[in-house]
Structure formats: C-alpha cells, structure tokens
C-alpha cells in the first residue's frame, strides 16, 4: 500500500507483519511494496538496505518516507531468536562465500544474549536511512 499522507509531505509505505512469518516472507512483502514495478526482488539483508537508498522501486532517492510496520510485535516474534539462529546456522552450513568465523561469532553473541535478532537487524537497517521515519505498530 502506497499513498501520500495529508498532514505532511512524506511518502507513506506500509509493511504488514501479518503477511509473513519468516525472513523469506519479509523479503516477499517488501519486494511487493517497494519494488512492485521492478524486475527483481529483495533476497538479502544487503539488498533490502540497497533499495532503501532509493533510485529504483517506489523510493526516489532521498525523499522523506514514513514507513509503518504493522503487526510489528508479531514480526518481532517471527524474526526473533529461533529464526535468527536458523539464519546463521544455514549460512554456516553453506560455507563459502560467507565468513564462517564472523557468522559463528554473531551466533555465539545471539546465544549469549548479546546479539541482534533478524527483526532488530531489519529495524536498524531502516533506521540507518535518515530520510525514513519508522513507526512500529
């Protein structure tokens, strides 16, 4: 859903946590919302970060964006500890081209309660873009 809000000039983008329950599902959701007229889809954390810079898809450069993540508590659970552990274990099993030592450290940090979950990583990626205001609902 893409529309412009009446009370400001920010373009509004809505991600629906109810539409997905996995990282692959998140990529599908943001691809359909942010890249609906493009011929490629988001499939990695770096790819998600890249599209937020704009210039392709619905974000046109550094325009002001309000991103609303509906049902974010559901997403926080879906993309929490278990999903993150599985994400890192899959990369370790896959091996190259991944930096196994770095990923093992991230997994160890997660298990020790010091690491970020996928949800926290995604929120951090969004918040790293100063033109995007994230609202968790």
Notable characteristics:
4-stranded mixed sheet, globular, 46% helix, alpha/beta, disordered N terminus, 137 residues
Overall geometry: globular
Order of helices and strands: EEHHEHHHHE
Continuous helix count: 6
How far apart are the termini?
A: 15 Å
- Quickly give the structural class: alpha/beta
- Estimate the mean pLDDT confidence: 91
From the alpha-carbon coordinates, what is the Rg to the nearest angstrom?
Answer: 16 Å
**Lateral strand order in the biggest sheet:** 1-2-3-4
Task: Give the biggest sheet.
Answer: 4 strands, mixed
Beta-strand content: 5-15%
Instruction: Report the strand count.
Output: 4
Proportion in helices: 40-55%
Unreliable segments of 5+ consecutive residues = 1-6
Provide a descriptive summary of the structure in words.
Helix 4 packs antiparallel against helix 5. This protein is α/β, with parallel strands linked by helices. The protein has helices spanning 23-34, 45-52, 72-78, 81-94, 100-111, 118-127; strands at residues 2-4, 11-16, 65-70, 132-136. The model is unreliable at 1-6 (pLDDT under 50). The chain is 46% helix and 15% strand. Strands 1-2-3-4 form a four-stranded mixed sheet, covered by helices on one side.
